[in-house]
Amino acid sequence: MIGTAWRVVGVGFSLLVVLVAALLSGVDPQQTGYVGSDVGDLVVGFGLRTDDLTVFMLAVVGVIAACVQVYSISYLHERVASYTALVTLFTAAMVTVVVADSLFLLLIGWEVMGACSYLLIGHYWERRDARSGAVKAFLMTRLGDVGFLFGIFVLAMDAGTARISELRPDQLSSGALTAGTLLLLVGVVGKSAQVPLQTWLPDAMPGPSPVSALIHAATMVAAGVFVIARLYDVFAAADVTLTVLAVVAVVTMLFAAACAMAAVEVKRVLAWSTVSQLAIMFAGLSLGTADGRHAALFHLLTHAAFKGLLFLCAGVLLHQVGSAAFVVLRRYTRKGALRKQMPVTFATMTVGLAALAGVPGFAGFFSKDSVVEAAWHHASDGSTIGWIVLVSVCLTAAMTAFYCVRLWLWVFYRTPALAGALGAFEDDDPMADVEEPNTAKLREPSWVMLGPLVLLAIGAVVLGYTDGVHLNWVIALVTTLLAVLGALPAYSLWQRGADPRPVVLEREFGVDPAYQRLFVVPVGWFAKLAVDGDRDVIGGYVRATGRAGLLASAGFRKLQTGNVQTYLTAAVVGVVALAVLAGVIGS
């Protein structure tokens, strides 16, 4: 009964966010301050802001959160109250970030999201990988948030205000502008899992699939894109920051796409895909143009639909099959069970992967092309950054098509060269000796779970047309050709039963082991040194002081004999000694 009540509250709050977005649509932009105080020359206030970007993000957050809450009714049956409360708080924190007109109010929502993500990723706390993934996410995002906090102070102190609507580049000195935006970028990189703080997001996959959908589609990682879009006038005036952002985005999109090409778990493929797609949004923002900002936000919108859909589909596979690893799913695919007995899941996941791969007609095709077109216009003006972004996004588009087709074929279709396909995973299969599964029990979940899938699948198609059917046919032809060039190798390898996983890709370029050696091990040494120093040095002095007091008290106790003659003799000796000493000093 309590769980049902919490679920009603969660769904109701998410729908309320959607309603607020609908009511605010078309309203004149406003800024409303509620609490404010002067701290020296700085005005600290907590204000709210209403504009097109607010309405846009509220709609995205509300719809995705509502789908996740409804889906969770059938998906999750343990610790329901705490889960629903945390998801609702998580959504409220993102709403706070969206409506904030104060850097400090934005920071509050930003930090609450981080705390909620830690608790939600570790929802299955009895699992070691869930606990370690939650801790890793918390520590790496907190590392970035240190820079974010200092960036807020630098900008607010130099401008004399923390109100976002009053923060203008001409109010800031060049040094404060560059330093403040770079520090904010550190927090954005951590929260959105960009290089070099990218490794926490794939390791957060042990959390519930609805949580993954919410984090990847509408909150947390999307917050970084939103913050730069909100402060875009300030960031666009900082050339050094935009250059750093472009470099980070280019490296991240290619790195993450390469990792997704070799991952063997559905959710891990999707996680690396999120990192790569976010980098495409950041690449659009790094152009510093209105077209780049518009393209990035358009891709954020379509990405929310198809990535939320894909994670919820992965949740269905976990719910019905028990694992979203290729190696286990292949056992069902041998009999064609997944595609035949779960047609709605198959159809909706196909739509999501088509949108992600940029298949013409789907939402991802239009939004990705808008980023390419913005980069092309910027490159045509002689911008080196524009050319780098253009080439990188095009390469990423081909790599995205590769891992989307690879995932789709390996999960849902019987491999022609079956022996070779199974052999590709033979060494890594922890269930190699497990008997064939009983596919008779395999079926679609209830419509409580399927309903959100169908809704998001519709969004993954129609959202591409919300910006108007504006196509640059040359760019559309090029990106389509790149998608085909990426898909063909995946199809060829699947048909031959081969799944190449080069060691460097399978190990994700060895970044985690490198971080382990460079940071975790030294920190462990310093921690041990601190513990040993506290125990053996500081603790030694404390213990020695205590023992000295005990020894002194024991010695003084032995002097208390109870013999009056001894006491008088000691007194006389003392008086004589003092008299002699006084005489010596006086002479």
UniProtKB/TrEMBL annotation:
Q: Per its UniProt record, what Pfam families does this chain match?
A: Proton_antipo_M, Proton_antipo_N
Which UniProt keywords are present, listed alphabetically?
Membrane, Transmembrane, Transmembrane helix
Give the InterPro entries listed for this entry: NADHpl_OxRdtase_5_subgr (IPR018393), ND/Mrp_TM (IPR001750), NU5C-like (IPR003945), Proton_antipo_N (IPR001516)
Major site of localization recorded for this protein = membrane
What residues does the NADH:quinone oxidoreductase/Mrp antiporter transmembrane domain cover? 100-380
Q: Which residues form the NADH-Ubiquinone oxidoreductase (complex I) chain 5 N-terminal domain?
A: 39-78
Membrane-spanning intervals of the chain: 53-73, 80-98, 104-125, 146-165, 171-190, 211-232, 244-264, 269-289, 309-332, 344-365, 385-405, 447-465, 471-491, 567-586
Membrane topology term reads: Multi-pass membrane protein
Q: Which domain of life is it from?
A: Bacteria
The answer to whether keyword Nucleotidyltransferase applies is: no
Q: Where in the cell is it found?
A: Endomembrane system; Membrane
Q: Which PANTHER family match?
A: NADH-UBIQUINONE OXIDOREDUCTASE CHAIN 5
Question: What's this protein's name?
Answer: NADH-quinone oxidoreductase subunit L
